[in-house]
Amino acid sequence: MTIRYKNNGRYAYQTKNIWNKEKKKYQTKWTYLGKTTPTGTFKKAHTKQEKLCLNYGDTHTLNTYCEKSNLKTLLQNTHGNTTNQILTLTFYKLTQQGAMQHAQTWLEGNYANQLYKDTDLSTQKITKLLKHIGNEHLHREFFKQYLQKTYKKQGIIIDSTALPNNISFPLTTFGHHDGKIEKETKLLMVVDKETKNPLYFRYMAGNIVDVSTLKNTVKELSLMGVSVDNSLIDAGYCSEDNLAHLYEEKISFLTRLPAGRKLFSELVSKTVSTLQSPGNAVFFGDRVLYIEKVPIVLYEKFGAFAYVCCDISRRAQETVKLLKTAKEDKLSDVEVSERLGRLGVFVLLSSMDVGVSEVLSLYYLRGVVEEIFKVSKCCVDLLPLRVHGEEAFRGVLFLNFLAVVLYRGFQAVLPVGVSVESALLVLRNWICKVFDDGTILPAEPTKKQRLILEAIENTVGKF
Predict the structure, then answer these.
(1) What are 244-301's pLDDT values in tens digits?
(2) Tens of pLDDT along 59-79?
(3) Does the CA dihedral 403-408-412-416 come out positive or negative?
(4) Which is it for strands 345-350 and 252-257: parallel, antiparallel or unpaired?
(5) Highest-confidence segment of 46-50, 153-157, 165-169, 399-403
(6) Is the same domain home to 73 and 144?
(7) At 19, phi and psi to the nearest 5?
(8) Percent of the chain with pLDDT over 90
(9) Per the domain annotation, does 385 fall within a domain?
């Protein structure tokens, strides 16, 4: 052993003379042993060996969002030691968008296996997890805490969608939507009108019509401590029973009046000569509409306001179509005139006195729910449904709800012009090395990766 001195330090080396055949002489090979201590011993040096190279940035950034927004803490409060498995599977649905049977393969090549050690995403474990998180008690406990922390008390939006499936259980029945009859289950979503974030979901058999679900939805929210004072509901919920219930509960509303109702015909006839006057013109984005506000009494006891609207562009297109087919359908002049009066016309009902220039902006907030359903079905692979039993089904819907919440929250804090999908693709290329002692060494982030991470660090909201 040889001691070398450098910068007031003592460093131990092992030396060995090796014969060099080419140079025909001995050469000394030096092997570093470590820095010596005052007692004469030395600390042995350890060379760390690279063990793995993993996709890093997407999972790291999503996890950062979950921690900073306290979504992870909320899950830990209600789901305890299954939180890591839930988040890992949620990250998989957001970043990979594939069947859950491939989740374990994804996990083996992703930083998630180091972030959440001992997580198992094999098919059997996922099935067990879905049944666990589908437990009714856990479901209600989570939403009680989630709603208290997220609802801004500025009103809700309610809408539903069909989930076609062939699961053999009572919730799958023949239902009608978009002109088709098929086996399905209904998914109802409640959205915060201010933040545009999902608040709650319900599900029911496919043959249950929307109009019969509103009362129970409002009641469930009330039982979980959510006091609703105004709502934006789809035309499918517009009925005398539902609107009367909203009046009794002192919940103001805005909805569209279905065209088949008697009140619709009466309002169109009443405004036919005055609706298309210059004073009723309203600009909404690139569209121009005529809107006339009419005070009415609903069901002979409730004061309300009807907004008779005529979309000029849509009216023109439908008029051309009607006149082209009138002769083929052998319509009389009277029938053509009656139909012309309704083309491009729709009616909004409100218990509130909303300004004519504001009513469309308020009503079209409904599009937020459609976007959420699109995210559910297209971006986080809610369909096709491949489970059995109500608990597992509820578990799938809960996992989908979490993925949508994370997607919407992540979307809100990204730099302008960057979509969630493109951000996750950019971040996926940010890799890390794992050494045999457990050390994680991420590569230097690119400019795009750094900007996304900084956006999460600086602007994320709190649950």
Answers:
(1) 999 999 999 999 999 889 999 999 999 988 998 999 999 988 889 999 999 999 998 9
(2) 999 999 999 999 999 999 999
(3) positive
(4) antiparallel
(5) 399-403
(6) no
(7) -75, 125
(8) 52
(9) no
Closest CA to 312 of 338, 288, 293, 336: 288
pLDDT score recorded for residue 39: 61
pLDDT (tens digit per residue) in 23-40? 778 788 877 766 776 665
Domain CATH code at residue 204: 3.90.350.10
Asked whether residue 241 carries a pLDDT value surpassing 70, the answer given is yes
In a domain, 398, yes or no: no
Cβ atoms of 232 and 156 within 8 Å: the answer is yes
Question: Do both 76 and 148 map to the same domain?
Answer: no
Task: Let me know if residue 384 belongs to a domain.
Answer: no
Domain holding 426, by residue range, is 56-123+414-459
pLDDT tier for residue 57 given thresholds of 50, 70 and 90: very high
Q: Percentage of the chain with pLDDT > 70?
A: 95
Same domain, 107 and 21: no
The residues, ordered by sequence, that sit 6+ positions from 40 with a Cβ below 8 Å of its Cβ are: none
